[in-house]
Amino acid sequence: MNHKSTRVRFAALAGAAVLALSACGQGGGGSDDALVIGSLLPQTGSLAFLGPPEIAGVDLAINEINEAGGVLGNDVKVEHADSSDADNAQVSQQSVTELKSKGVHAIIGAASSAVTRLVVDDITNSEIVQVSPANTATDLSGKHPFFFRTAPSDLLQGAALGNLVLGDGHSNIGVLVFNEDYGTSLRDVLKDTVESAGGTITYGNPGEEFDPQSSSFADPVTAVLATNPDAIAVIAFDQTKTIVPELVSRGFSGANLYFVDGNLSDYSGDFEAGTLTGAQGTLPGAFPDDDFQARLLEVNPDLNDFSYAAESYDATILVALAAVKAESVVGKDIQAQLAAVSGANGGTSCVGFQACADLIAAGEEIDYDAKSGAGPFNSNNDPSSAFIGIYQYNDDNTYTWIKAVEGEL
Questions:
Q1: 2 part of a folded domain
Q2: Concatenated DSSP letters for 252-297?
Q3: What distance in Å separates the CA atoms of residue 161 and residue 350, rounded to the nearest whole number?
Q4: pLDDT for residue 51
Q5: What is the mean pLDDT of residues 218-229?
Q6: What are phi and psi of 146, to 5 degrees?
Q7: Claim to verify: residue 335 and residue 190 sit in the same structural domain
Q8: Region label for 404, one of left (φ > 0), alpha (ψ between -120 and 50) or beta (otherwise)
Q9: Which of 110, 181, 198, 206 is most enclosed, with most CB atoms within 10 A?
Q10: 31 plus 135 within the same structural domain
Q11: Around 13, how many Cα atoms within 13 Å sit in the side-chain half-sphere?
Q12: In this structure, is residue 382 part of a structural domain?
């Protein structure tokens, strides 16, 4: 979905019993119970690089909430679980089962829109609040009353990417996109943006996607280069590590490559120096300031990437504030207050859990100032506005924030 360079189980009968109990108990409980937040974020799979900053964002929020006295007099508990990716569907499904058995009231995740589609019904139909910090697929808008996200849909990122490529003077644009819902929905918005401005998608139109599980991408690379594009947008995950050398070896300049949040990554250990010099990419969210980065590094000193950390932090803080406002940790009560604490009803602007909780205690409506820069939830439980960061690659194949553009939904 990446600020890099500045950046077993239960026996059948026992499992059924646990699930029956958790289905009743997760949404139950009141002000005397501790709020339990689960995370469903990638620890393995093709998006594992997103896991550390997202998990650090959740843990930082939990630390700050508990340092401020917790929620309703109790420390918030956190349970982390692996989402992996859509090619390993059983991992996320088993993780949700485990999180439910642990009585979570809300789940932060998944990172992948495809993974969310696998588990969203199981989570939300149990009246567990789900808040994704990184889902961007357009079809998830308004998916379920209990599903929210702190990252904007691809309507914003696709438009930002298209305007970036066009603004650089390119008009004939090739797209190497994998046949996965995240990729095709982002491609569709990019295509609309480019064509509305008079540009052409030379390759990568519907029906010209590649198989994400292929071991070789020579054929799509050959096909896109045959259309003589000015620039190529690569919409993929780990496949990028194979695609880029294939393109460069055939004479295509890395400076004319464009990436998205799923592959905007630190490639300093993957490619020869200079491979990506001048390449650019987009990533939803405001750039994390030095103070926020320092706080995240206190949680995980090994971070070299801050992708979606702010959105994960915001998701966790918002869940906790909703519980405070509801005076309850019951899932349906948290769900009913999430939009309000995000500022959907107006209110006093506030930064961080402590200040916002104090205003709630004083009887005020609040407008949580999201670290990611996202606006209040709209009627589809999406951010009503958000920033898209523009990044450029350096000679060492790391990347640096250049600017941000803001859009509304």
A1: no
A2: --GGGEEE-TTT----TTTS-TTTTTT-EEEEESPPPPHHHHHHHH
A3: 31
A4: 96
A5: 98
A6: -95, 5
A7: no
A8: beta
A9: 110
A10: yes
A11: 0
A12: no
Question: pLDDT band at 16, cuts 50/70/90?
Answer: very low
- Rounded to whole angstroms, how far apart are CA atoms 259 and 177? 11
Other C-beta atoms lying within 10 Å of the C-beta of residue 55: 23
**Structural domain for 393, as ranges:** 155-284+387-408
Rounded to whole angstroms, the Cα distance separating 214 from 241 reads: 13
Same domain, 129 and 175: no
Show the tokens assigned to 301.
Answer: 């000193």
Whether residues 187 and 261 share a domain: the answer is yes
Residue type (1 letter), 108: I
Q: Is residue 5 in some structural domain?
A: no
Please check the confidence at residue 220 and state whether its pLDDT lies above 50. Answer: yes
Domain membership of residue 239 (yes or no) is yes
CA 135/CA 146 separation, integer angstroms: 15
The CATH number given to whatever domain includes residue 232 is 3.40.50.2300
54 and 84 belong to one structural domain: yes
pLDDT tens digits, 347-393: 999 999 999 999 999 999 999 999 999 999 999 999 999 999 999 99
To which residue do tokens 């646990």 refer? 18
pTM attached to this predicted model: 0.84
140 burial type by CB count under 10 A (0-12 exposed, 13-18 middle, 19+ buried): buried
Model pLDDT for residues 125-151, shown as the tens digit of each residue = 999 999 999 999 999 999 999 999 999
330 and 400 both lie in a single domain = no
Token pair, residue 205, equals 């139109």
Please report where in the chains the tokens 């594992």 appear, as a residue. 48
Q: What radius of gyration do the chain's Cα atoms show?
A: 21
Domain identity same for 400 and 261: yes
Domain count, the chain: 2
| Claim to verify: residue 327 and residue 209 sit in the same structural domain | no
